[in-house]
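Before relying on records like the one below, remember that each one covers exactly one chain. Contacts with other chains, cofactors or solvent are not represented anywhere in the record.
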Amino acid sequence: MASAGADLTQLPLIQSDAVTLGLLALCLGLVFYTENSKHPACVRFYRYVPSLLICYLLPSILNTAGIISGEHSSIYYVTSRFLLPAALVLLTLSIDLNRIIALGPKAIIMFLTGTVGIVIGGPIAILLVSMVSPETVGGAAPDEIWRGLSTIAGSWIGGGANQTAMYEMWQVSDEIFPSMIAVDIIVANIWMAILLIMASRAEELDEKRGANTSAIYEVREAVEHFHRHHARMPHLPDFMLMLAVGLGVMGFSHLLADAIAPWISSHYPALDKFSLGSQFFWLVVIATTIGLGLSFTPVRKLEAAGASRIGSVFIYFLVASIGMKMDIKAIVNYPGIFVVGLIWISIHAGLLLLVARVIKAPTFFIAVGSQANVGGAASAPVVAAAFHPSLAPVGVLLAVLGYALGTYAAWLCAVLMQLVAPVG
């Protein structure tokens, strides 16, 4: 156990969550202000660098510099447990379920392709790196690298709940787990940046691939038609009603999740491997389900006043809180594991691009199918909204499927990695 003095030296310069939250808000405000600036330097910068990436990067720089710390702050917990469920409700209010079903089977095919890419990518990455540097992917019990990589598999197929399941299931050493967190976040965000760049060139890429995007445009047109005929200037009662719905459903989702998850873990512990004993899993599922239900009611009219915009504000605060958990120095401190992560995500990406070429899937399905795995409910709707705000609910729905499959697929990936990993 570390001494109290050692712990003290690791504390950030700013330990107040109130001050930290203020800094995150300033970072987000700076990004949105400069992105919408007409200054030539800003225009050129954001032409090549996605603003979402900067929303991650600025807090990560503050974290790396020791000014703030995701580890010593409760902000990520608040944003992921309180703001995320509310955002999911507000983002799904305007969903047209029939239109999404009309997108066809290609959306599910690309999602499952992304899952397969993660499952086989891990063991292939270990195999390739072991040919050059076996010590990088070896290790002796309980510090085998494959154990740590299993937590990345859980995160990239489902999310935090699935990652925690792998951590507990494979008894991952605390010596290697922090580096896995850093590689997980950094590599995933590099890939997200690439997807956002692809989103900005979606029409060009779809044309080259010969992809049929008519169904996607029909969803966009339906939502735009709704806005054209119902959009209005929001007033104070609108904002209060949106917060009442979003936060009210969030509270109700917690109430149910806090009862359902322990009951399942107690009576059906075998279902824990499917994340069905996870409170966070049920929190996301319940909030999304209620949001879907409300889309069939008059509450849907709140979208005309900007419900999805309020939801997007919540999502961006979640993005900033994730960024403050990133340590940029991990690129230097753990270069070997970082290379494994890059090879792994490249296999995932390559398989997606190959299948998309064969079935002529739109770029939107590539991006959302990938992020529903790698990013989960936190970033899948953000990437989907980069194509068009009305498409965010598609990301939410696929991400929920990722939570359901995550632990089982990550377990299979871990078993395969164990089989190919060098013996320490």
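The mean pLDDT is 83.
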